[in-house]
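hey can u run this one w/ protoporphyrin IX containing FE bound, need the structure tokens asap thx
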Amino acid sequence: MIACSWIQFMIHDWIDHMEDTQQVEIRAPDEVAEGCPLKSFKFYKNKKVHTGSAKPEIGFLNSRTPWWDGSVIYGNNNDGMIKVRTFKEGKLKISGDGLLEHDEKGIPISGDIRNCWAGFTLLQALFVKEHNIVCDMLKEHYPDFDDEKLYRHARLVTSAVIAKIHTIDWTVELLKTDTLLAGMRINWYGFFGKKIKDLIGHKFGPVCSGLVGLQRPRDHGILYSLTEEFVSVYRMHSLLPDKVILVDIRSTTSENKCPLLQEEVPMWEMIGKQGERRLAKIGMEQMLVSMGHQSCGAVTLWNYPSWMRNLVAHDVDGEDRPDLVDMAALELYRDRERNVARYNEFRRNLLMIPISTWEDLTDDVEVIEALREIYGDDVEELDLQVGLHAEKKIKGFAIGETAFFIFLLIASRRLEADRFFTTNFNSRTYTEKGLEWVNKTETLKDVIDRHFPEMTEKWMRCSSAFSVWSSDPTSRNYIPLYLRPASACYVLMSILACFFLIIFSKNFLV
Ligand code: HEM
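ok here u go:
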């Protein structure tokens, strides 16, 4: 469940489509209305704007900053940023029990407060703690830094820690193969690896030394931005369970570090203000260990959380909306509203082979029957979300290959097109000690260990905090990562790319 909350934590750092004032209503057709929790529901359209260019002519506004800047804890604008700061020693507000503070209405005080639940605000609180401890470290080494300087540097460091964890820990857990592990580490450290980069710095271009630390951002001619396609493939609400399983952390540990079950709480009780009250009673440690021991849902058809089909969504101030929404229906509507291509066209746009029959998409006969009932034999009509959920998964991957293509493209872009991960990823901007902090932090487990020194020792058997904590640790592999068969192919391609780059740049420089 930590992996699932983490990705929501990231989404709330990057994107939230601004809404228009015009409300619309969706009505379930009579033939299916019986099976829908809501026969109709109202919601706001997205705010459309003219882009000023011919293609695409129309775009949609984002109310969050798309940069990897930790806005999920720091806020997206000046008012938001002021609200979360203590203005003492650079620190952010946090309550005595380690959880977020709340305003008089019971809404958490944090960078992002919309559609939150207990697992999400818990991660916000953990990274506020991380920010504050970075402030302590900076103050110790740079006693002349005032509140503003401490805040700004700690923000840079904490945001980079978040970006690094996402790149080399979370993504690797979601797409569990040696190829991905090699690819993501190359994105951060380059083919020569951490030890050499630590020793000599970023000397040999993106393939050998990684994207992080490049001399200049590379945006391939388009200013840093996230795409609508990216938003669509991250619509992974089926990762969310129907209930949260709380475990008893006062129990003695068993052989596989698995605590006893204490209580099952329906997911809808963990959302919004109600969820915050519940979390305050549960406490940070029990919630974190419980989430660690619960697996999340699979991104597959017929696994959409039923409680999301009559959901109380939040407005921009984090307050409950009066009209319930059916999120499953709304997600299809949003993709159509934003002109995101349907599944087959989406694949064509990515130069992937489109499907010709339902059998190309899945082997599941029950799924094929249902698709035929809805779309007939017209595979071009297949909605992107339905296709993404129905698609056969690559072995070891939690997602299908269509989403994976977008993941790969944007995972690199988020780093290489941002000056704080390229031109300014240096000790002048981050401070020497700040950069050292980013460099020594490799995983979410490192962060948890910092703030809860005994927790993972007692309750975590596996290697990554994003796995189910009672699962087996990754077995020791004495073959170096880049020589393993699955990653060797990736590495070989990287070396070839490097070789051609060198030749190309020589030709270019003379
Ligand atoms: C309790 C947990 C969650 C709740 C209550 C929730 C609720 C919502 C709501 C109400 C929307 C806006 C719908 C609209 O008007 O278009 C939304 C959008 C979205 N959610 Fe969630 N969500 C949750 C968790 C997650 C998770 C785990 C993910 C995983 C990736 C996720 C990904 C997204 C994405 C990509 C969007 C589209 C954002 C945009 O259109 O700008 N959400 N969610």
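Residues 477-510 form one domain. anyway lmk if its weird
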